């Protein structure tokens, strides 16, 4: 498939007329072909109107139709072959093997949501029969969940496939029965066009023209117009705190406010408990250095903060972690902007009073390459300086040295909301771990024992979410089967004639989905 610089509006390929922009190869810091046409406000209008017009028919497709559509998208993405991987590699600097793995993950997500749609649990079908003899009589009441309406999706720069055009937000919104309008991330425009066309083709083949569009344009103008458009009923976003909060404010200021599910900033604290440091400090140090530098540290679950009690074992850990980190080569970051933000962030962090640099990775030799950075400060410094709490997106981590458990507990209490919190512990540490847990449950969406937070499994039990600022809505997850709940709302049908009931609520249960009938789960 050719990259033409076009966006996708339903079944049309449209070259935007509001100017052009080219992709940048971060490995060389140079532009490359072709030029991409930027959307006008008319294009936003067309995409949104189309999404609104198809919503009612799309949400009433059968589970099989919608599941097949999601599977067809997965097949079409695989069908793009090396063209997709090579373009993504050029645009993001991410290694080919990593991108191949990410493509597999993207297809698994689409297939997971196909299974979720077929299983039908997400519908929450609930039937309460009429009780005419009761005083007062109870009417026949039936509940199901339906899609919220057209969803605007802002893909992430750091996962050009799995969190982008056909990523988790798009897959879960389409699964919920919501048409999707994507705002392509400027960091991987060609990759976005290829994937958008794979979705467009799948929609065409499945008779679902119009349920998907992708716009190319500046976030502050086209992205803002999209979120402000009355046809859009929810937003999925992954990116910076500033970008996410700008969209939250726009959505809240609309005549009809809408939910924004923004995944933003997280430093993912890792608590190193005393016996774990004593018995396996060297192994933890190696695991930490590997996790910190994976993908140039550009993971939302990157371990950006370590917390430990001062001790000879901590000193040994520091030596092992420093040695492991010093061997790590600098790797290319996703965009010149992200690289600049990282370099400035590290420089600022290292200059804060009380902060001492412990180790750095190998120096950068390419334009956008990031050198890993491990620094240390005392608990009191951290507690008294909020500048130390900010995410530095990239391979940078700050070790907080605590003089006692009370300080460790105070750190846990003081940190902002997180996607993850990790505890390294042996059985001898369980009493300390138990005392930390209630705080960590309040702070994080996923709590790990003896692992590292990078690597987010796509499955039913996953939570990739957490209290603010890790996300704008801690009740949800953006990865895993439950991500579909973000784009659904319940509707109750009272005293409906059988002929007018939605299929999922008919007595005969034609879709064969699990339902709660008069308070009992029926399978
Ligand atoms: P970003 O600047 O927040 O951009 C994400 C998307 O939102 C892009 O499509 C962007 O449009 C759009 N956008 C940005 N500001 C907007 C606004 N005010 N109104 C409407 N749309 C807006 O994120 P990024 O470019 O991916 O990376 C920048 C920084 O974000 C990184 O340095 C890092 O700190 C953070 N980040 C965090 C995570 C995480 O998972 N926690 C992931 C990625 C990045 P354009 O394409 O036009 O810019």
Automatic annotation (TrEMBL):
Pfam families: Aldedh. Residues 19-466 form the Aldehyde dehydrogenase domain. Keywords: Oxidoreductase. The keyword Membrane does not apply. Gene3D superfamilies: Aldehyde Dehydrogenase, Chain A, domain 1 (3.40.605.10), Aldehyde Dehydrogenase, Chain A, domain 2 (3.40.309.10). SUPFAM superfamilies: ALDH-like. PANTHER family: ALDEHYDE DEHYDROGENASE-RELATED, SUCCINATE-SEMIALDEHYDE DEHYDROGENASE, MITOCHONDRIAL. This is Aldehyde dehydrogenase (NADP(+)).
């Amino acid at each position: 498939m050719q990259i033409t610089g076009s966006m996708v509006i339903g079944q049309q390929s449209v070259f935007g007329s509001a100017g052009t922009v080219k992709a940048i190869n971060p490995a060389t810091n140079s532009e490359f072909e072709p030029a991409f046409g930027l959307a006008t406000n008319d294009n936003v209008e067309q995409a949104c109107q189309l999404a609104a017009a198809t919503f009612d028919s799309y949400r009433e497709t059968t589970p099989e139709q919608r599941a097949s559509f999601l599977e067809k998208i997965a097949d079409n993405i695989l069908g793009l072959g090396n063209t997709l991987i090579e373009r993504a590699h050029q645009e993001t600097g991410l290694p080919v093997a990593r991108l191949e793995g990410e493509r597999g993950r993207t297809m698994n997500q689409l297939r997971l949501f196909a299974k979720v749609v077929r299983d039908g649990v997400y519908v929450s079908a609930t039937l309460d029969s009429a009780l005419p003899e009761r005083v007062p009589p109870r009417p026949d009441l039936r509940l199901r969940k339906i899609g919220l309406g057209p969803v605007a999706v802002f893909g992430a720069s750091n996962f050009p496939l799995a969190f982008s055009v056909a990523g988790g937000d798009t897959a879960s919104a389409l699964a919920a029965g919501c048409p999707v309008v994507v705002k392509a991330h400027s960091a991987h425009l060609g990759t976005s066009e290829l994937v958008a066309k794979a979705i467009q083709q799948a929609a065409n083949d499945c008779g679902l023209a119009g349920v998907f569009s992708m716009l190319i344009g500046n976030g502050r103008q086209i992205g803002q117009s999209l979120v402000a458009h009355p046809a859009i009923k929810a937003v999925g976003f992954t990116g910076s705190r500033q970008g996410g909060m700008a969209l939250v404010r726009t959505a809240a200021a609309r005549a009809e406010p809408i939910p924004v599910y923004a995944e933003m900033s997280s430093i993912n604290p890792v608590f190193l408990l005393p016996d774990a440091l004593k018995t396996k400090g060297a192994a933890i140090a190696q695991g930490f250095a590997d996790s910190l530098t994976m993908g140039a540290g550009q993971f939302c679950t990157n371990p950006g903060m370590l917390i430990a009690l001062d001790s000879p074992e901590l000193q040994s850990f520091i030596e092992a972690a420093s040695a492991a980190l010093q061997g790590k080569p600098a790797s290319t970051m996703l965009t010149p902007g992200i690289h600049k933000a990282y370099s400035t962030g590290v420089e600022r962090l290292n200059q804060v009073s009380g902060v001492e640099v412990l180790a750095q990775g190998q120096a950068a030799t390419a334009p956008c390459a990031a050198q890993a950075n491990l620094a240390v400060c005392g608990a009191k410094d951290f507690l008294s300086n909020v500048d130390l709490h900010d995410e530095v997106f990239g391979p940078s981590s700050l070790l907080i040295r605590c003089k006692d458990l009370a300080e460790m507990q105070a750190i846990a209490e003081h940190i902002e909301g997180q996607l993850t919190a990790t505890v390294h512990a042996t059985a001898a540490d369980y009493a300390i771990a138990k005392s930390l847990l209630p705080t960590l449950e309040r702070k994080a969406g996923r709590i790990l024992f003896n692992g590292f937070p990078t690597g987010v499994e796509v499955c039913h039990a996953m939570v990739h979410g957490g209290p603010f600022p890790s996300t704008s809505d801690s009740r949800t997850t953006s990865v895993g089967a439950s991500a579909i709940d973000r784009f659904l709302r319940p509707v109750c049908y009272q005293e409906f004639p059988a002929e007018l009931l939605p299929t999922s609520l008919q007595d005969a249960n034609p879709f064969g989905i699990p339902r709660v009938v008069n308070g009992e789960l029926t399978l």
